[in-house]
Write a structure and sequence with these properties.
The chain is α+β, with helices and mostly antiparallel strands. The chain has one domain. The protein is 37% helix and 24% strand. It is built from two helices and three strands. It has a three-stranded antiparallel β-sheet, with no helix packed on it. It is globular and about 35 Å long. The N and C termini lie far apart (30 Å). The relative contact order is 0.17.
Length: 67
């Protein structure tokens, strides 16, 4: 099953697989893509847990931003 993250930066959009952190569709500028991948790698387990909550239409847990 595909579990994506959808990210926007200005007019650019990208879909990233949570499990592999690889791009599935779209494109971001390299610096923005690097920041997204860094954040997602730090919170991969939380993203997967939120994905399961979303599938059950339950409230998502807050995930801290990249600092």
């Amino acid at each position: 099953m595909r579990r994506p993250i959808f990210t926007r930066y200005g007019d650019a959009k990208v879909e990233i697989a949570i499990q592999t952190l690889s791009g599935l569709a779209g494109k971001l500028p390299p610096r923005a893509m690097g920041l997204v991948i860094e954040w997602a790698s730090r919170h991969q387990h939380e993203l997967l847990a939120d994905w399961e909550l979303a599938r059950r239409q339950e409230a998502l847990n807050k995930i801290e931003p990249l600092e």
